[in-house]
């Protein structure tokens, strides 16, 4: 792509900059809204029928939500009535979402934790410590979907969020599943919902008010509204701007749960000399005990993750590590507390190192424990896990331990430390340790300084075994800016962590502005022009990567979205490497330009598409990346995503393609009974992988699970497995 073409494209990218920001002004400083909870003697009947329940109708409602889109700062187009009550052991919330056109309510996937962004929904967040940093999210749609999540550090920590495939990185944990109940009702008035959340399900400090905020989606008009208004660019996770829930008089609930499982596994490994079907039964379980309302002990024995979704296939078209996120439930609870470093790039603790080998093989987990929670304003996390040896893979028995403490001061400020240790149980000289300090300094509501410093220790006493990062963020009044510097020493080796690449110095920066048209009748919802840069240098001063990104996101009120961008890239190859079979990239420096365009249609419609195309130079030749996803939804029961990624390289050393085909489908018989499938084809590995999962959920993601896996390479079967697992919760303390 020549420079004239590049400049012409840039004019198109940034032509929206002349639009002015919307004129409505909201003051976010000062007092936030407040509401009272109501102590009741008897629990309401949880059936979703709020309007005909005398208990709820005797309580004065709160509402007056404010739009963040499409018309920022305007009152919500529909009335929302919210009421809160509690007994000694349960928190109750009711909501009536009035809707003038209830027949046009948008519904989507009915399974637990289904995405609520593209459906009519009601979501709320509870800051049960009133620390402005951590919270629990609950939500539903008109079909009664159970949606819950944990928020840590106001949901921040995903600077490399494009590397996330699900699971969790940093501050938002969707895979946290609590035991609670929600019921809904749809009528001529719109729809209503009732939530019942046992107090032993969440963690809180007795004697404190809670932070709280509510979000309502009115999808037919692409509307999002909040009770405690927040600036553009923020989400409900911004707990420092939440409102207050007062009049709480809560006692400490008892909480002792035993969660056993039984499992039967049928396997046939075709790579064996004489393959046969092997059957292996198994059993194990977890214990959960609340030492205080805010401090929980979890114990696990013979830990199993048979029902966990398999990883998405990836193709490595560079010379650095691929990132696969954690999806196993035991390691996901309070994951934000244990996250230290730069998520997705320099993770000091990466729980996938426990129980998963370097090539993705499973390593049996004997068991372990975790103590996590809060002591006043101090977050505490202790973890210790034991794994078995795997002789054929050369893996010895190991203990993985971690101690984490983080004290939160007022004003979005915190200081913490962590110690991580891997120790071989059969060799006292087999160890790897990481020690680090980290912190953040809030500069009002608008800016923040953060960073960490870490060192690793092993028997080799390696030099330059350090890593650190300093970062400054500003986000307010439509403007987002970020400046950071990361350094990873040549000897830094966190064996229980993750490094995207080793031995580098990296500056990076981002500037983004959100434009809202003044005219409320404009078809454009928002323009987001931005520029970002990241560069990697080794310790000899040689630049290994440079990436300058100029882009504009065009978001329309109809739900249509277009991203138009240019990338100016530098790749410095120190040593030749094989990018594909018999295709070698020689050492040298490669400077290129590429254009990219991303296109979304309205994702709330039954049929939607997402297309991404990147074209330009790469390693002295050309690269063409084209990917697309076709999504279809039939009511709230059936969903299917068909995705195809095509990578085509034309390099001096040869040409090749690398493709991934992925089909994800789900059918929900009810919100708690559903079938899911993931079918993938990776042309580089010549692999077909099929994962089918049937789930009959009871409480907190327990119940019956049936999982079938089938893998083919070059048309020949690799291994098949059928797993039947049943798990149940016993509440021993009420």
Structure commentary:
With 734 residues, this protein is mainly beta. Among the domains are: 32-246, Immunoglobulin-like (Sandwich), CATH 2.60.40; 325-502, no CATH class. The chain has a 24-stranded antiparallel barrel. A hairpin with a 5-residue loop joins strand 42 (687-697) and strand 43.
> What's the shape?
globular
Q: What is the residue-mean pLDDT, rounded to a whole number? A: 88
CATH architecture of the domain at 32-246: Sandwich
Low-confidence stretches: 3-24, 158-169
Give the amount of beta strand, in percent. Answer: over 45%
How many alpha or pi helices?
4
Rg for CA atoms: 26 Å
The major beta sheet can be summarized as:
24 strands, antiparallel, barrel
Q: Share of helix among residues?
A: under 10%
CATH C-level category of the domain at 32-246:
Mainly Beta
Distance between the first and last residues' Cα:
68 Å
CATH fold-type name of the domain at 32-246 = Immunoglobulin-like
- Which structural class fits the helix and strand makeup? mainly beta
Number of strands: 45
Quick overview:
With 734 residues, the protein is mostly beta strands. The protein contains 4 helices and 45 strands.
Q: Can you lay out the helices and strands and say which pair or pack?
A:
Layout: H1 3-13, E1 34-36, E2 38-39, H2 54-57, E3 66-69, E4 80-86, E5 90-98, E6 121-127, E7 135-141, E8 147-151, E9 168-169, E10 172-173, E11 181-187, E12 190-198, E13 210-218, E14 223-226, E15 243-246, E16 256-269, E17 277-292, E18 295-303, H3 329-332, H4 335-338, E19 341-342, E20 346-347, E21 365-375, E22 378-387, E23 398-409, E24 413-424, E25 431-443, E26 447-457, E27 466-476, E28 479-488, E29 498-499, E30 504-513, E31 524-537, E32 543-556, E33 561-573, E34 577-580, E35 583-585, E36 588-600, E37 607-618, E38 621-634, E39 638-651, E40 654-670, E41 673-682, E42 687-697, E43 703-713, E44 716-727, E45 730-733
């Amino acid at each position: 792509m020549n420079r004239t073409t590049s400049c012409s494209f840039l004019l198109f990218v940034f032509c929206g900059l002349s639009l002015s920001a919307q004129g409505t002004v909201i003051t976010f400083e000062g007092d936030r809204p407040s509401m009272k909870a109501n102590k009741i003697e008897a629990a309401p009947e949880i059936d979703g029928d709020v309007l005909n329940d005398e208990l709820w109708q005797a309580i004065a409602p709160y509402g007056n939500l404010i739009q963040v889109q499409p018309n920022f700062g305007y009152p919500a187009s529909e009335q929302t009535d919210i009421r809160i009550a509690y007994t000694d052991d349960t928190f109750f919330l009711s909501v009536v979402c009035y809707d003038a056109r209830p027949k046009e309510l948008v519904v989507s996937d009915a399974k637990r934790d289904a995405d609520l962004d593209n459906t009519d929904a009601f979501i709320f967040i509870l800051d049960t410590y009133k620390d402005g940093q951590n919270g629990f999210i609950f939500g539903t749609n008109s079909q009664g979907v159970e949606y819950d999540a944990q928020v840590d550090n106001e949901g921040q920590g995903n600077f490399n969020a494009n590397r996330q495939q699900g699971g969790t990185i940093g501050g938002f944990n969707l895979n946290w599943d609590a035991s609670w109940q929600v019921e809904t009702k749809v009528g001529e008035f719109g729809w209503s919902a009732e939530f019942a959340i046992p107090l032993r399900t969440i963690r809180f400090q007795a004697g404190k008010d809670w932070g709280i905020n509510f979000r309502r989606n009115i999808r037919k008009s692409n509307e999002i509204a909040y009770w405690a208004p927040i600036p553009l660019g923020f989400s409900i996770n911004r707990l420092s701007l939440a409102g207050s829930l007062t009049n709480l008089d809560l006692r400490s609930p008892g909480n002792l749960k035993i969660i056993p499982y039984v499992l039967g596994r049928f396997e046939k490994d075709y790579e064996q000399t004489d393959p046969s079907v092997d059957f292996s039964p198994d059993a194990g379980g977890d214990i959960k005990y609340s030492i205080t309302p805010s401090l929980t002990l979890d114990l696990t024995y013979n830990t199993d993750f048979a029902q966990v979704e398999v990883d998405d296939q990836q193709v490595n078209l560079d010379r650095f590590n691929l990132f696969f996120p954690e999806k196993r439930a035991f390691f996901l609870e309070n994951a934000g507390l244990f996250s230290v470093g730069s998520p997705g790039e320099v993770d000091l603790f990466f729980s996938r190192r426990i129980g998963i080998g370097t090539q993705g093989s499973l390593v049996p987990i004997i068991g372990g424990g975790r103590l996590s929670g809060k002591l006043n304003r101090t977050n505490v996390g202790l973890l210790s896990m034991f794994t078995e040896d795997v002789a054929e893979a050369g893996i010895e028995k190991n203990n993985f331990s971690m101690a984490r403490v983080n004290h939160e001061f007022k004003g979005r400020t915190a200081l913490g430390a962590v110690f991580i240790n891997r120790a071989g149980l059969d060799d006292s000289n087999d160890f790897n340790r990481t020690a680090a300090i980290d912190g953040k300094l809030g500069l009002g509501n608008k800016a923040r300084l953060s960073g960490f410093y870490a060192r690793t220790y092993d028997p080799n006493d390696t030099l330059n075994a350090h890593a650190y990062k300093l970062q400054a963020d500003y986000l307010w009044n439509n403007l987002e800016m970020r400046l950071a510097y990361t350094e990873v020493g040549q000897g830094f080796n966190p064996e229980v962590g993750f490094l995207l690449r080793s031995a580098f110095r990296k500056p990076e920066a981002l500037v983004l502005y959100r434009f809202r048209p003044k005219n409320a009748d404009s078809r454009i919802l928002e323009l987001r022009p931005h520029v970002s840069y990241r560069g990697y240098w080794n310790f000899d001063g040689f630049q290994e990567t440079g990436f300058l990104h100029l882009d504009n996101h065009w978001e329309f009120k109809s739900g249509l979205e277009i991203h138009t961008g240019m990338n100016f890239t530098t790749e410095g190859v120190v040593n030749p490497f094989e990018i594909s079979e018999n295709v070698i990239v020689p050492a040298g420096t490669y400077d290129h330009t590429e254009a990219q365009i991303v296109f979304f249609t309205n994702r709330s419609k039954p049929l939607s598409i997402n297309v991404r195309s990147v074209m330009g130079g790469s390693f002295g030749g050309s690269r063409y990346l084209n990917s697309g996803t076709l999504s279809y939804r039939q009511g709230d029961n059936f969903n299917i995503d068909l995705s195809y990624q095509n990578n085509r390289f034309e390099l001096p050393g040869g040409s090749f393609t690398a493709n991934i085909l992925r089909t994800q489908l789900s059918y929900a018989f009810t919100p708690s009974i559903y079938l899911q499938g993931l079918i993938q084809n990776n042309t580089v590995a010549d692999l077909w992988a099929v994962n089918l999962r049937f789930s009959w959920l009871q409480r907190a993601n327990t119940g019956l699970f049936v999982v079938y896996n089938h893998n083919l390479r070059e048309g020949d079967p690799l291994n098949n497995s059928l797993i039947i697992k049943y798990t149940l919760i016993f509440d021993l303390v009420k």
